[in-house]
Amino acid sequence: MAFDYEQYLRPGKLPHIWCPGCGHGIVMKGLLRAIDTCGLEKNNTAIVSGIGCASRLPGYVDFNTLHTAHGRAAAFATGIKMAKPEMDVLVVGGDGDGVAIGGNHFIHACRRNIDMTYVLLNNYIYGMTGGQFSPCTPTWAKASTTPYGNPDPIFDVPKLAIGAGATFVARTTAFHATQIDKLIAAGLRHKGMAVIEVLDDCPTAYGRRNKFRSVVDMMKRLKEIAVPVKAAAHMTPEQLEGKVLTGILHQEERPEYCEQYQQVIARAQGA
Amino acid sequence: MTRILLTGNAAAAWGARLAAVDYVPAFPITPQTEIIETLAEWIDGGVMDSRLVTLESEHSMLTAAGAAAVTGVRVFTATSSQGLLYGMEMLYNLAGWRAPLVLVNVSRGLSAPITLEPDHNDVLAARDSGFLQIHCATCQEVLDNVLLAYRLAEDSRVRLPVIVNLDGFYLSFTREPVEIPDPVAVADFLPPFADLGQHFRGGQPSSQAVAVLGGGPYSYFRYQVHLAAEQAAAVYADLGRQFERHFGRLYQAVEAYRCDDAELVLVMIGSFATKAKVAVDRLREAGQKVGLVRPLLLRPFPVAELRRLLGQRKGVAVIDQNLSPGRGGILHAELAEALYGLAKGGPLLASFVGGLGGRDIAEEEFLQIVEVLSQAVQRGSAPPPRLLFTADELQQVRRLQDIAHGSREGDDAS
Ligand SMILES: Cc1ncc(C[n+]2csc(CCOP(=O)(O)OP(=O)(O)O)c2C)c(N)n1
Ligand code: SF4
Ligand SMILES: [Mg+2]
User: Fold this and answer.
1) Residue B203 lies in a domain
2) What is the pLDDT of residue B405?
3) Which of A83, A114, B167, B367 could be a cystine partner for A257, CB 3.0 to 4.6 Å?
4) A46 CB contacts (<8 Å, ≥6 apart)?
């Protein structure tokens, strides 16, 4: 039977604001399937976002949601988790929100290994403000603030998350729709900071400027560049040129922050 | 000299272009983004000899702007709303460094609730930072005042950063005919940046942004900022006259519209004042002695001018597009203080708050404000402060609350 998305959508909130062909909707559906698979309780789940097209997602879904300030989602989520450690806390947001203006909160949430699931929708651009380059816009790609090509090098979001201390890090793309829910579900089950990067498409602010003739073109590219980690193990550096690894890229056990904090309380009480 | 249709944002970009700025640190935010996109196009296309770098936030943007300015180059930057607030820490720093740069702010209401549309709480939050503030009502004023702002900021008697403010949407996205000054004339009015000893040179090491111990030095330097800001009133007056000689348009700290014999006067800042002018014209046609006073300079606050222009009136209505919760309209409070202690007690002052979060102020509302003011003058007592808000708007809010309430109930059932 087809999955019933409506049970998780707020009545009266559709149509959404996303452009035709925007990948954010695919990710939202994956997120809802993952939440369903893991059996999260609506009342016990908080979904937090900052500002951006991606950050509009919580407005449509029927959970405890918080649409905050640009770049601050991880800090809001940390506040919720510390106040209510029993809650399942998710963050969704864009590349700009997560690793440009919000980069500091992002790396510190990773470092603390606080138990939350951060779904980062990387469409390589600031979509909402009309296509200025972000720290994920490929070098020499075009953006509205760099009409002749962007000279900046990029962040590799999974590497950043791993380096900062996140204990579950995965990546997939909007093309690989069925992998999205599997990875988010694995992240939800993981105790600690889980980061799932979804490479996404923004036909309006990125595709048009960068010679993608259609959304299909953009999806094809996502399909072509993705290499599952296991397959990559058998490939040469030349074969991996221009590719991105997908699947679970990193997983380790490390004390989770709220539990560590419980120990501080126990110590203070003289245990 | 050419006259073309420009948005307020494009006019701001033209100001920066004509000022031949050296460096533009940038970060996008609606409704300002068009300014930096326009400059990026010109700079990358080689039309403008400057450097533009998009930073990762407004905080870094303003930091880079201030640092560049004190190394001795001309700097332009622009932001809006949440961005201005996110960079707020640096506003105080930049004023303390005496970094003479120009920041265009495109006014937009502050979260929460989240809005994209204009009011003045963003720029007024910067009121006490030490940045000077010029508030524009037309696209032409935006362009011209970017040029004036550089002269003001770089003047040896002032040496302070300046905010040039325009309203989001109403001005930022509205096209008006704008005269683009001749670059040669601009170069004559605004000579190349003079660092006046503020620079980074290995051979003359200097230290910027030092720390001080104890309140003495701190008081001294902070008060210097105040004295310089006060100086700026006379400097702006002088520059306004010079500007007129060059370009034929006069700017003064305060605009007085049809005020000569006015008994009742409206006071407001920004582009909505152009709507007030239309209402004033209507009332004048009906024989009422009504005028409008619009401060362009908000910092320094033109106290002497305002006392001169308003001291003898019967009634003054201040329309604030901002709200200081627990106090009311900010401009109203500032004006009440400025008019305090006049020989004959001064005019009766009425406070109206309107245009929050982009809400329009209809012509009928201006007429009504004048009616309320006129009755108050006859009665001899000020009316209670008012929010411009209609019964229809309340109904609309109630409908939204019903929808929200309904979906909550749905929650409980599931
Ligand atoms: C402090 C602050 N600065 C700037 C903005 C303007 N702004 C809104 S969304 C956005 C970028 C969004 O990009 P991203 O997070 O990648 O999301 P997308 O729209 O691409 O999904 C920016 C710069 C803001 N809202 N607040
Ligand atoms: S602008 Fe881009 S990111 Fe935003 S809704 Fe449109 S396609 Fe999606
Ligand atoms: Mg993005």
Assistant:
1) no
2) 81
3) A114
4) A63, A64, A65, A66, A77, A80, A84, A87, A88, A89, A90
CB A100 within 8 A of CB B56: yes
d(CA B91, CA B63): 9
Instruction: Name the token pair of B261.
Output: 């014999």
State how far the Cα of B308 lies from the Cα of B319, in Å rounded to an integer.
19
Domain total of chain A: 1
pTM to 2 decimal places = 0.96
Q: How many CB atoms lie within 10 A of CB B22?
A: 18
Nearest to B114 among A67, A71, A126 (CB): A67
Dist. CA A133–CA A94, nearest whole Å: 12
Q: Mean of the pLDDT values across residues B185-211?
A: 88
Instruction: Give yes or no: residues B264 and B233 share one domain.
Output: no
pLDDT tens-digit series, residues A21-63: 999 999 999 999 999 999 999 999 999 999 999 999 999 999 9
Do B279 and B187 fall within a single domain? no
Say how far residue A183 (Cα) sits from the centre of its chain: 11
pLDDT per residue as tens digits for the range B267-296: 999 999 999 999 999 999 999 999 999 999
Is the residue at A44 inside a domain? yes
Tell me the C-alpha distance between B94 and B77, whole Å. Answer: 13
Nearest to A148 by CA among B9, B52, B32, B30: B52
Determine the 3-state secondary structure of B121 from DSSP: helix
Interchain proximity B86–A101, CB inside 8 Å: yes
Pocket of ligand 1 (CB under 6 A): A 51-54, 70, 93-97, 121, 123, 125-129, 134, 202; B 28-29, 58, 82-83, 86
Give the list of residues 6+ apart from residue B205 with CB closer than 8 angstroms, or none.
none
**How many domains is chain B partitioned into structurally?**
2
Q: Which helix (H) or strand (E) holds B393?
A: helix B391-413
Q: CA B37 to CA B10: how far, in whole Å?
A: 10
Locate B129 and state its tokens. Answer: 């930072």
**Residue at A8 is within a domain:** no
The binding-site residues of ligand 2, defined as CB within 6 angstroms of any ligand atom, are A 18-19, 22, 24, 53, 123, 127-128, 202-205
Domain with A84, as residue range(s), is: 18-268
B45 with A148: Cβ contact below 8 A? yes
How are strands ordered across the β-sheet holding A64-67? Answer: A64-67, A45-49, A88-94, A116-122, A193-199, A168-173, A244-251, A226-228
Place of tokens 């039977």: A1
Start-to-end Cα distance in chain A: 53
Give the β-pairing of B290-295 and B264-267: parallel
Helices (H), B137-286: 139-154, 183-189, 215-247, 272-285
Q: Are B56 and A101 in contact (CB under 8 A)?
A: yes
Structural domain includes residue A2: no
Instruction: Give the Cβ contact number of residue B199 at 10 Å.
Output: 13
Q: How far apart (Å, rounded) are the C-alpha atoms in residues B369 and B366? A: 5
- Which chain B residues have a beta carbon less than 8 Å from that of A42? 411, 414
Distance between CA B108 and CA A191 in Å, rounded?
A: 41
Structural domain ending residue among the three candidates B247, B276, B310: B247
Q: How confident is the model at residue B300 (pLDDT cuts 50, 70, 90)?
A: very high
Residue B321 CA to residue B332 CA, distance in Å, equals: 11
CATH of the domain at A105: 3.40.50.970
Show the tokens assigned to B273. Answer: 């004042």
Q: Determine, yes or no, domain membership for B405.
A: no
The whole domain housing B220 covers: 2-196+210-247
Rounded to two decimals, the ipTM of the complex is: 0.94
Do B95 and B33 share a structural domain?
A: yes
